[in-house]
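Entry 14. Structure prediction run on the chain below.
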Amino acid sequence: MNNNNVHSLRRLLNIILFLLFVALSGCASSPEEYEVVTEPVEETAPPAEAPAPAIVAPAEPITLAPNHPERYVVVKGDTLWDISGRFLRDPWRWPEVWQGNPQVTNPHLIFPGDVLRLYIIDGRPVMQVERGEVAISAGVTDGGATAPRVPTDAAGRPLRVVKLSPQVRAIDLEKAIPIIPMDAISQFLERSVVADESQLDDAPYVVSLADEHVAGGSGYRLYARGIEEDAEVDNFTVVRPGKEYVDPDSGEYLGKEALYLARAELVREGDPATLTLSAAKREVLRGDRLLQGEPETFNFSFMPHAPSSEVKGRIISVFDAVNQIGQHQVVVLSVGKRDGMEPGHVLAVLRDGETVKDPVRGGRVKLPDERAGTVIIFRTFDKVSYALVTSATRAMHLGDRVKNP
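Output returned:
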C-alpha cells in the first residue's frame, strides 16, 4: 500500500471517530443547559399483595313450606308476610326469592289480583309477580282455569313472554297489601312512646280542665303548669305515664311507657297556661303530662331482615294485659336502638327449658330451650323496641328470650 492510500485511510478513520464523538456528545446533557442534582435514592418496599377477599359463609338454603302452592292469586285482606308463609318456611326471607317483571317495578308492592308463581331454577326457588299483560301472556286467566304450559328454554327454564308497549299506569300505593297487619299495630305507631323517667317528671302537667269538667276530649280547654313563658313551641302531646320497663337480667331501668291521649295547642301563656285539646284518643285527666311537639310520624317502608349482629333480649311487657302471648299481639323487647335494632328486624322467640327431676339418676336436669315463634320489630326506642308476633308455635310468656332467627 503506498503512502497516499495510507494517508487517505487515516483521514477516513479520523472522520469516523469525530462523527462518533459528536454523536455521543449529543446524547449527554450539557452542563450549560441542565443542572444535575444528585439526591439519595429512597428505598421503597415492594408493593404488598392485595389481601385475600373475606370468605362469606353461604346463607342457609331456603326451605319451602310444606304443601306450598305453585300459584297464588292475591286477594284483599292478605299481608305480604302471610302470603310468603304459604311458600316459605321462613317468610322473612322472601326478598331472596321474589323477582319482579319489567312491568312490576317493585315486587314488594303486591296488589289484590296479582298472581304469584313459584319456579325452581338451578335448584333454587324463584317467585315471580305477574300483573296485567304479563300474567295473561303467561297463560293465567282471571277465572283460574287451567293455564297453558309456560314456555321454557333449552335448559327447561321458564320464559316470560311480555308485551312491551308504551303506556302510563296509575297505581294507588295505598291499595297495596301491607307487610304485616296494620290494624294490629296502628295504635302503636305514633300514639305511645317510651320516655326517660326524668323526661316525664319534669314535663308540664294538667292541673285542671275548664268548665269544671272532670275529663276532657277533643275541643275541651285545659289548664297546665310548667310551660315556660315565651316558649317557642305551641303544640304539645298529652300522655299518661304507664308501665316501667326494667331489664330482667341486669336490672337496668329501660324507660317508662308514655301512653298517648291527645294533642294540645297553646292558646294563652301564663301559670297556669290555657290549651285546647284535639285528636283525642282517650280522656284527659288531671295530672297527665304534656310533651313538646307533635307525635312522631312513622315510616312503614321497611323490609323484614335478620339483624347483622348477635341479639340477646327478652320480652318484658305485653299489651292488653294478657298472661299468654299469641299471634298478632304487640310485645315490648329489652333491646333497642343502642343494641342495633331497627324496624324490620326479625327475631326468634325461645322459651327457657324447664328444670325437672331426673327419675332415674336423681337430681334435676334442665330441658332444652324450645322455639315458640317469631316477632318482627316495627318501632324502636333507645333501650326498648315494639314488636309484633307474626307466628306462634306455642304459647309465649313474659321473660321469654329473643335472638337471631
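The first helix runs from residue 3 to 27.
Filed with the rest of this week's runs.
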